[in-house]
């Protein structure tokens, strides 16, 4: 018999609202700080290098965040980290003008991404505890849509504030967001059973790492293959979006920070639409269709490369680039929700936080490399940016073709099929 338990219970609703507020603060910061660096230094190479450095703590902290999420109260983790982020931005705001700008941005960005690396596993591991299994896929879609909504509003509002008033009001707004989110999260009740242990902290971490690695590499090798493909995809496509789009819009097309904010907002709107598409197409699009979704996302790079190659007017080029970014993010979100649900459905509850965080960390290893490469390429090939875009499209296309065999092997996965069929 079909389970009719509603998705938006009190605790899940509180988490969703808290996520909207927290992620909005995070979104305006992630928009403003890199743009502030790019505007101040006018160096794509430095922009790429700083962005790459910022991700390193997230990569290293995320697996530990998963271990902590499985052993500690997830609500307390989220509350503590939101308060910590508010404190961090407060310190940064009072330090402007007193220390070297690049040093401050590197340290602050690294700290922000490190905190996010510890924060996100707790959120993802909480979803199966707050919703029933038949609501798992739409629950993931809602959290993803929340992220996209915050990402939509953040850059647009951030672009307006930054363009007219500079960095200060953005810092103030983000501090308020993190503080309010932390207070709201205090009232969430997430099921928690304390795990008794006599082992040392080092022994616990070592054991949990070994358990995660054994599960991914030996018990579920399809997860490792999937992670490897996503890492390669992130190297070529995701890194291009992260580094190339700001450079293309603000330096090559000479558009304003407000225009860049709109593009970032459309990226987030694409993510929001991708989450909606997941709910609508849940009965039709399965995990073994994922290579098709990736291929469609890659095709969106072609129009971007063409307008840059033929020197189309700046405004038309901007519109085409922004539209392609929207489509890429919509398709990427549809893909990522499918993958996340697959991992959750394949992983026992007591391993969810560890395995998801380990998977996230592995997929995040490639973007710093890609960001450094793209930063250098856009520095030396700024007048031939279309070459960079076409190379990225070609490399990503090869990866999409290779992924077909991996995703097709998931066609007969019983657990994932059961989760999806519960929605029918």
Automatic annotation (TrEMBL):
Annotated transmembrane regions: 12-33, 45-65, 77-96, 102-120, 141-164, 170-188, 227-253, 259-280, 292-310, 316-343, 355-378, 384-402
Protein's cellular compartments: Cell membrane
Keyword Ribosomal protein: no
Protein name per Swiss-Prot or TrEMBL: MFS transporter
Annotated organism of origin: Romboutsia weinsteinii
Pfam families the record matches: MFS_1 (PF07690)
Membrane-topology annotation of the record: Multi-pass membrane protein
Keyword set includes Transmembrane: yes
């Amino acid at each position: 018999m079909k389970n009719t338990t509603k998705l938006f219970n009190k605790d899940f609703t509180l988490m969703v609202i808290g996520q909207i507020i927290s992620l909005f603060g995070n979104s305006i910061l992630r928009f403003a700080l890199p743009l502030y660096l790019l505007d101040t230094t006018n160096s794509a190479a430095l922009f790429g290098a700083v962005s790459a450095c910022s991700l390193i703590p997230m990569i290293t902290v995320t697996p530990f965040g998963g271990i902590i999420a499985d052993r500690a109260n997830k609500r307390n983790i989220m509350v503590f980290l939101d308060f910590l982020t508010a404190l961090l931005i407060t310190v940064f705001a009072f330090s402007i003008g007193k220390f070297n700008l690049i040093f401050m941005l590197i340290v602050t960005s690294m700290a922000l991404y490190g905190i996010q690396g510890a924060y996100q596993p707790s959120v993802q591991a909480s979803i199966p505890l707050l919703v029933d299994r038949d609501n798992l896929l739409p629950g993931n879609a809602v959290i993803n849509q929340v992220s996209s909504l915050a990402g939509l509003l953040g850059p647009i509002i951030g672009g307006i504030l930054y363009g007219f008033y500079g960095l200060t009001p953005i810092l103030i707004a983000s501090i308020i967001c993190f503080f309010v989110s932390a207070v709201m999260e205090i009232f969430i009740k997430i099921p928690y059973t304390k795990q008794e242990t006599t082992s040392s902290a080092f022994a616990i971490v070592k054991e949990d790492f070994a358990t995660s690695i054994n599960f991914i590499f030996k018990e579920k090798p399809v997860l490792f293959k999937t992670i490897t493909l996503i890492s390669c995809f992130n190297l070529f496509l995701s890194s291009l979006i992260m580094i190339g789009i700001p450079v293309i819009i603000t330096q090559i097309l000479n558009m304003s920070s407000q225009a860049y904010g709109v593009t970032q907002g459309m990226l987030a709107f694409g993510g929001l639409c991708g989450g909606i598409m997941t709910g609508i197409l849940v009965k039709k699009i399965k995990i073994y269709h994922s290579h098709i979704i990736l291929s469609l996302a890659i095709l969106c790079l072609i129009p971007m490369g063409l307008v840059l190659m033929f020197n189309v007017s700046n405004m038309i080029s901007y519109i085409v680039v922004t539209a392609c970014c929207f489509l890429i993010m919509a398709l990427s979100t549809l893909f990522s929700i499918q993958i996340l649900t697959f991992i959750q459905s394949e992983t026992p509850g007591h391993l969810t936080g560890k395995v998801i965080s380990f998977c996230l960390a592995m997929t995040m290893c490639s973007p710093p490399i890609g960001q450094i490469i793209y930063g250098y390429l856009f520095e030396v090939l700024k007048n031939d940016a279309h070459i960079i875009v076409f190379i990225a499209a070609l490399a990503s296309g090869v990866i999409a073709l290779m992924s077909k065999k991996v995703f097709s092997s998931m066609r007969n996965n019983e657990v994932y099929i059961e989760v999806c069929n519960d929605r029918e």
